[in-house]
Each structure stands twice: as structure tokens, then as C-alpha cells.
Design a protein that fits this description.
Layout (H helix, E strand, L loop, with lengths): L6 H7 L4 H12 L2 H7 L4 H15 L4 E4 L2 E4 L1 H20 L13 E6 L2 H18 L3 E6 L7 H4 L5 E4 L10 E8 L1 E6 L11 H6 L1 E5 L8 H7 L6 E6 L2 H9 L4 E5 L10 E5 L7 E7 L7 H15 L2
Helix pairs in contact: 2-3, 2-4, 2-5, 3-4, 6-11
């Protein structure tokens, strides 16, 4: 394995890049006096700068012809290249230009649950189409809470509940607070009358767990009352749970806002046990913090979720 370069020695050996600006102006003006005036330097300081340029390039660059100066072949060769280098360097060190949404062409990838896309996707797509028609959104599924896709730049944004698995370096903005509710098909016994803890626990339940777990906060709350629910099946997502509920007598417990677009035609009810609300957040990697397009899209999501 080759040794790592010594950046300190490289920097010390580099020529003064400010000389590029001086050379660009000298070649454009063809006069030490005019170049000095343009750069607000004294003629003697400009003459010294020309001497440094000659030493650095190994070429006289500008030579006297009568009362004026004319460029050497080497200077003519450098003139176009130097101008572009100065423009590129200035662009790199200048703050990003104001975002022109009408001309922005870009694809943003967002990792979210199906429920989030069902609920907020239509309004988000409509706003993006109106403000930035050249922008395309790619929604990908969220099978876990692993932060690697954000860290590696595979996705631009993610929505979900911040937990222990969330990378500590990630930026997060709370979008809304959600609560869990019970859902059954219309005509189910729990769609009629008061839903008590005992009636709720007596049903056959579909549990949502990415890791296949059959117990969670709901079960702990029921256990405190001496009750236990019967888990008939375990699925990986809320959309699947609701699809099963729609076609059976199963009971699902799902986040209310997160699944608003999936519960059409079903009966919802407040859970008869106390559970803490959950906060759904928008997550992104800090390298995208100052990106104008990314910042605009984050603002769109915040606005849309705040209206729910």
C-alpha cells in the first residue's frame, strides 16, 4: 500500500494561485499599467507580479514591442485556459446561485412507508409538478430503520420515527404527532357499541412488526389490566395489515394519520388502552443541509404535513 500523500508539503510546493487572476488580467489588458489599475495595485507591485509569473511559467509572457507589450506564443496558448480557470475557481468559492425551480431538473429519492406515500404523496406530487415540473420523485419502500441508505447517498430523504437505530449524525425535523387506533371491517362486532379493553383483547389480531415480533406496547398496556390479545398473524407493514382486515374479521392497530389514505371503507375506533403518541420526523444527511433543491423539497414536506 502506497503511503498517504503529505498534504502540507504539497501545499507548500504549490504556486500562488492568486497569480492566475493577475495573469488573466495582464493578458486581457496587454499593459502593466492598465492591469495594475484594474486590480487596484501600484505599477511596481504589478511589475513584481509579472516577474513572479515569468519565473513560475519559465516564459516572458509579455515582451515590449515599441511602446506597448505583446504576448508570447506561450501567453497566447494560456490566455483562454487561464480565463476559464479563473471563472471555474470563482464559481467554486461562491455561494450557490438562487434556486430556479422552473428550470430545475433532478430526481429525489425518498424512503417512506406505503401509508405515508398514500396519505401525503398526492399533495406532494401536485405541488412539485406546479413549482418544479422538471423534478421527479422516486419513493422507495422502508423495510427497516437502518440509516445506511441516507449515509451512503442512496436516498435523499426519509420519514419515520427517530429511534435508537437512527444514525446520530442525521438531521431530523418533526412533521406531525400520530396516535394508534383500532381498525376493523364494517360489520365487525367491534364496529358496534363501546370498545372496552376486554372486547378489544378478545378479537383476533393482525400485528405489524418488521422483525416478526408478536408483542409490543399495546400488549404491555393490556397485561397491566390482566388481559392478553390473540395474535392471529404478523405482517411487515400497515398496508398489508389493513388489506387483511378488509377481507376478514381480524383487528389491526395502526397509526391514524399515517394510514389515512389506506382506511377507506373500514371502521376505525379509539384504542381502549393508553398509549403514548408517536412523532413522525423527516430525516436527511447533513451533507444535504445547504443544498438549495433539497432544502426546497424539505420545506414542501413540512408544509404539507403541517396542514394535516
Amino acid at each position: 500500500m502506497s503511503p498517504e500523500p503529505c498534504y502540507a508539503s504539497i501545499i507548500m510546493a504549490m504556486p500562488d494561485l492568486n497569480l492566475l487572476v493577475t495573469l488573466d488580467v495582464l493578458l486581457a489588458e496587454g499593459s502593466v499599467a492598465r492591469a495594475a489599475k484594474r486590480l487596484r495595485l501600484s505599477p511596481s507591485a504589478m511589475s513584481r507580479a509579472l516577474g513572479r509569473l515569468r519565473a513560475a511559467t519559465g516564459d516572458p509572457l509579455l515582451v515590449r514591442a515599441g511602446r506597448g507589450l505583446v504576448p508570447t506564443p506561450r501567453a497566447l496558448e494560456l490566455r483562454g485556459r487561464v480565463g476559464q480557470l479563473v471563472q471555474d475557481g470563482t464559481s467554486v468559492l461562491r455561494p450557490a446561485e438562487k434556486l430556479d425551480l422552473a428550470r430545475l431538473e433532478r430526481t429525489f429519492t425518498q424512503r417512506s412507508s406505503e401509508g405515508f406515500v398514500e396519505t401525503f404523496g398526492p399533495a406532494l406530487l401536485a405541488r412539485v409538478a406546479k413549482e418544479a415540473p422538471g423534478v421527479r420523485l422516486c419513493f422507495v419502500q422502508k423495510p427497516d430503520k437502518d440509516s445506511t441508505p441516507l449515509r451512503d447517498g442512496l436516498v435523499d430523504l426519509e420519514t419515520g420515527v427517530v429511534g435508537l437505530e437512527t444514525g446520530p449524525e442525521l438531521r431530523a425535523h418533526a412533521l406531525f404527532r400520530d396516535r394508534f387506533i383500532g381498525v376493523v371491517r364494517k360489520g365487525h362486532a367491534l364496529a358496534r357499541g363501546k370498545v372496552t379493553p376486554a372486547r378489544y383483547a378478545s378479537g383476533r389480531h393482525v400485528v405489524v412488526s418488521r422483525r416478526g415480533r408478536d408483542r409490543g406496547p399495546i400488549d404491555e398496556a393490556l397485561a397491566a389490566l390482566g388481559l392478553e390479545r390473540q395474535v392471529a398473524t404478523i405482517v411487515g407493514g400497515f398496508a398489508t395489515a389493513l388489506a387483511l382486515v378488509r377481507a376478514s374479521d381480524l383487528v389491526a392497530s395502526v397509526p391514524e394519520q399515517h394510514t389515512a389514505g389506506l382506511r377507506g371503507g373500514l371502521h376505525s375506533f379509539a384504542l381502549p388502552v393508553a398509549l403514548p403518541a408517536v412523532t413522525v420526523s423527516l430525516l436527511w444527511h447533513p451533507r444535504m443541509e445547504a443544498d438549495p433543491g433539497h432544502r426546497w423539497l424539505r420545506g414542501c414536506l413540512r408544509d404539507l404535513c403541517a396542514k394535516k
